[in-house]
Amino acid sequence: MSLWVDKYRPKSLSLLDYHKDQANQLKNLVKQGDFPHLLVYGPSGAGKKTRVTCLLKELYGSGVEKLRMESVPITTPSGKKLDIKTISSNYHIEVNPSDAGIYDRCVVMELVKNAAQTHQLDPTGQRDFKVVVLTEVDSLSVDAQHALRRTMEKYVSTCRLILISNSTSRVIPAIRSRCLGVRVAAPNQDQIISILQMACKKEGLTLPVELAKKIVEKSERNLRLAFLMCESCKVQETPLKEKQEPILPQWQVFLKDTARSIMHEQSPKQLMEVRGRLYELLSHNIPIQIIFKGLLKELVSNCDIKLKAAVVEEAAFFEHRVHQGSKGIFHLEAFVAKFMCIYKKFMEDSVIDMF
Amino acid sequence: MHSFLKTGKLGPASGAGPSGDKQAKGQKRGNRPTPWVEKYRPRTVDDVVEQGDVVEVLRQCLSGADLPNLLLYGPPGTGKTSTILAAARQLFGDMYRDRILELNASDERGIQVIRDKVKSFSQLSASGIRPDGKPCPAFKIVILDEADSMTHAAQAALRRTMERQTRTTRFCLVCNYVSRIIEPLTSRCTKFRFKPLGEEKIIERLKFISSEENVNISSDALHSLIDAAGGDLRRAITCLQSCARLKSKDDASEISTDDVVEVMGVIPNRWIDGLMNVCEEYDYYKVTEYLDQFIMEGYSAGQLLEQLHLKIVMCVTISDKHKATICEKLAVCAHRLQEGASEYLQLSDLCCTLMLCLRQ
C-alpha cells in the first residue's frame, strides 16, 4: 500500500502526462547514444525527479530500478569524519551534497570524483558512462560548485552529471555553460485536474470537477501537494463530494492567524505573543522562506500601495539577512517589529489627516 | 632450463594481450561521441580564436624564446585553459604528462598542497632535450586553473616558491577575476586579459562546426544564440550541440530561434514585456499573481534581472533618475539572489520599485 504520489508516478518517458514535447526531445537525446550534462530546474512538485528517473530508465533499462542505500564515509581535510547517504544502482549514484552542510565541497571532491574516475565495470553494458545525480544544487556552496567545474570536463568520457535544482539563480555561470538546461514548468490547472481524475478513476472513485478545482487552487500548482490533498480528501470522506473542502496543512492556518494578530494590535506585548507563535512554527520545521512569504501575503492585504512597497522592501531585506546569519528567529522578529512600526505610524498619520 | 626460458619468453607475449586490448579500447574511445567542446578544443596555439597578445608570446616561446610566468584572466568560455593546454602540448609533445602539473578547484589546494606537492614538483630540474633528441624548453609548467578560488594563505605560500624555482619551473595562473589574486602574485606574472570573443569570430567558428557536423541552423537562430551567449564560446558550442541533439536524426529540420531560446534558458520577450505592462497598471495583486505564474513556469530570476536590465536601460520613456533607482534595486536584488534569498520576495520588492517609478 503506497501513497498515490508514488503509485501513479510515471515510470517511463512515454508515459509522462505533460510536457510531452520535452519528453520526446529527451528520448531523441538518449537515442543518439551520447548525452550531455543536464541541469534540470523548475518549481517543486513539477516533476523534475520523475523526469530524471524516467530518463535513467530509458538509458539503462530496468536495471536502474534496483536501488540500494549506502552510507559512504568521507574524511574532510580537517580530519572530521562524515557519513553521506547515497542511493545507487549499478549504473547511477544519487547524492544530496547539501547533507554535508559546509563540507559539501569534500563530497563533490571525493565522491563525485571517485565515481567519475572509475570506469563502468561491465564493458558490454549499454553505455560507456555512469550517471551521477546531484539534488538540491541550489543549496550547494560556491566552493563546491567551483570544484565541479573541471571534474565535469575532465571525466566527461566516463561520467555524466545530472543536476537538479529549484532555480538557476544560485548556480554559477561556469556550471550553467557546461550543462544542457532542462526547464520543467509546473503543470497548469487543466493538466493537474485530468491527472487527478485519472488516478481517482483507477482507484474506483469519481472526482467532482468542483473539488478538483479547489484542490488545484490550494496546492498552488504543486502536483505532489495536489496528490496528497486528494488522498487526504478520500480518507476524510468517501465517495468524494463536491462541497468537500480540501484540508490545508495545519501550519498554514496557524500562520494566517499569526499574521492576523499582528494586524490586530501593534505593541511590544503583542510582539512577545507573536514571537511564541513564530517559535512554534520554526520548531515544526517550517522553512523560514515560507514563513516570510506567508506573512507578507497576509500583511500587505490591508495597506495602500506605498505602504505595500515599503513592507515588501523590508521583507526582502530581512529574508536576505536570514541567509547570512544562522539564527532565523531574530530576523523574523525584526521584520515583524519593523512592520508594526511602519503600520502604526501609517495609521496614526491617517488619523491625523482626518482631523 | 629451456622450459624456464620459454616461460620467460612467454611473459612478454602474454603481456602483449592486454596492450592489444588497450589499443582496441583506445579505438573504441575514438569512436565514442565526445562533446563538441572537447572535440573542437584548439590543438595548437595558432588555432586559438582571437586573443592576439597571448598567442604572440606563446608563439615566440615555441620558437625558442623564454616563457614568463603567466596570469590569464577573463570571462568564462574565452579560451584561457584551452590556450595554455595547447601551448603545453606543443612545447613538450610526448613528455606532456611529465612536465605539467595541473591543479584545479576540484583538487585539494590548501596551503599544505602548495608546500608539498607544488614545491617538490617545481624543485625537480628538467632536461632541455626530448627523448627523441629534439630540443625542448628546459622547464616544467605548473598550471593553477581557477586560481581565484584558492585561499589567500595558499596564494601567499606560492610567492617565494614562484621566485626561487624560476630556473626549472614556470607558473601559469588561470582565473576569472584578477582582483581575487593577491597583489604579490600578480606582480610576479605577466598579465593577459582574454576579451569576450567578437561576434564574427564566434559565427565563423560555429559555422565551421555546424558544417562539420551536418547541422542545419537558420541564420536568425545563430544570431540569437550568439546574443544569448554573450561572448562565451563554450556556452555557444554547448548550446549548438544540445539543439542538434534534441532534434531526432531522421528529422532534418532547421534549428529555429525557439529551440535556441529554450535551450539557453533565455526568457521569451513576451514575459518581460508582460511584466512591464503589469507594473504600469499599478495593481499590487495583479503583479504578485503574474510573479507567481512566472516562477511556476520555472524561469530563473537571475536571468530575468539580466534581461530586464537591458530592457530598462534601452527604454526611452523612463527618465534617467528613475532608471538609476530601478538599476540600483536590480543590483541589490541580484546580489541577494546570489546569496540565496527567496526569489519571490526579491522579485516582488523589485516590482514594487518598478511600479512606483513607472507611475511617476
UniProtKB/TrEMBL annotation, chain A:
- Identify its protein family: Belongs to the activator 1 small subunits family.
InterPro entries noted in UniProt: AAA+_ATPase, DNA_pol3_clamp-load_cplx_C, DNA_Rep/Repair_Clamp_Loader, P-loop_NTPase
In terms of superkingdom, the source organism counts as Eukaryota
GO cellular component assignments: DNA replication factor C complex; nucleus
AAA+ ATPase domain residues: 34-190
Record's protein name: Replication factor C subunit 3
Q: PANTHER family of this UniProt entry?
A: REPLICATION FACTOR C / DNA POLYMERASE III GAMMA-TAU SUBUNIT, REPLICATION FACTOR C SUBUNIT 3
Keyword list (alphabetical) reads: DNA replication, Nucleus
Q: What molecular functions are annotated in GO for this chain?
A: DNA binding; DNA clamp loader activity
The GO biological-process annotations, alphabetized, read as: DNA repair; DNA strand elongation involved in DNA replication
Keyword presence, Nucleus: yes
Assembly information from the UniProt record: Subunit of the RFC complex, an heteropentameric complex consisting of a large subunit RFC1 and four small subunits RFC2, RFC3, RFC4 and RFC5; the RFC complex interacts with PCNA. Forms an heterotetrameric complex with RFC2, RFC4 and RFC5; this complex has ATPase activity but is not stimulated by PCNA. The heterotetramer of subunits RFC2, RFC3, RFC4 and RFC5 interacts with RAD17. Interacts with CNTD1; this interaction facilitates crossover formation.
Provide the coiled-coil residue spans.
none
Q: Where in the cell is it found?
A: Nucleus
Is Nucleus there in the keyword field? yes
Quote the function comment for this protein: Subunit of the replication factor C (RFC) complex which acts during elongation of primed DNA templates by DNA polymerases delta and epsilon, and is necessary for ATP-dependent loading of proliferating cell nuclear antigen (PCNA) onto primed DNA.
Originating organism:
Frankliniella fusca
Automatic annotation (TrEMBL), chain B:
Stretches the record annotates as Disordered:
1-37
Chief subcellular location? nucleus
Q: Which Pfam families does the annotation name?
A: AAA, RCF1-5-like_lid, Rep_fac_C
State the compartments where it is located: Nucleus
Cellular component per GO, a single term:
nucleus
| Top-rank taxon | Eukaryota
Q: Which GO molecular function entries does the Swiss-Prot or TrEMBL record give?
A: ATP binding; ATP hydrolysis activity; DNA binding; DNA clamp loader activity
Q: Per the database record, which ranges form the AAA+ ATPase domain?
A: 66-198
* Entry-linked InterPro entries: AAA+_ATPase (IPR003593), ATPase_AAA_core (IPR003959), DNA_pol3_clamp-load_cplx_C (IPR008921), DNA_Rep/Repair_Clamp_Loader (IPR050238), P-loop_NTPase (IPR027417), Rep_factorC_C (IPR013748), RFC_lid (IPR047854)
Q: DNA-binding as a keyword?
A: yes
Q: From its record, what is one biological process in GO terms?
A: DNA replication checkpoint signaling
Q: Which SUPFAM superfamilies match?
A: P-loop containing nucleoside triphosphate hydrolases, post-AAA+ oligomerization domain-like
Q: Which keywords does this Swiss-Prot/TrEMBL entry list? A: ATP-binding, DNA replication, DNA-binding, Nucleotide-binding, Nucleus
The similarity annotation says: Belongs to the activator 1 small subunits family.
Its name, as the record gives it, is Replication factor C subunit 2
Organism expressing this protein natively: Frankliniella fusca
